[in-house]
Amino acid sequence: MNRRPLVFLYKDTGEKMGMITKVITKRNWEIAKTTGEINEESLIKEGFIHCSLLNQALKVAQKHFSHEEDVLLLTIDPSLLKAEIKYELASNGQKYPHVYGVINVDAIVDVVPFPKEKGEFILLEVQS
């Protein structure tokens, strides 16, 4: 998989747009590769799939995936997503990217392991 920069420019306006990330279990990633899309229960319950910015991914993993062992961090190119993204305020005061539809796997530009050290997730170096 070719690595792409985490920040690039919108084609039409030249504004900076950052990549978004998705924390996912290896099991669910294998399913997504087979079906061609990431589809989660939150899409039915809340109307969107939760994603994060790179600087938010560690806290997301600790909070929601602490009981999991085989976890991956996906990098998503927003310009390749078929569904709409909205950056919305969460209860912690930060804005998170929410994808209002399934995530097409061809929008995933990088997949890296999200390992734990002493029970805590650690971010491996992400190439930019």
TrEMBL record:
Gene3D superfamilies: Protein of unknown function DUF952. Coiled coil: none annotated. InterPro entries: DUF952 (IPR009297). This is DUF952 domain-containing protein.
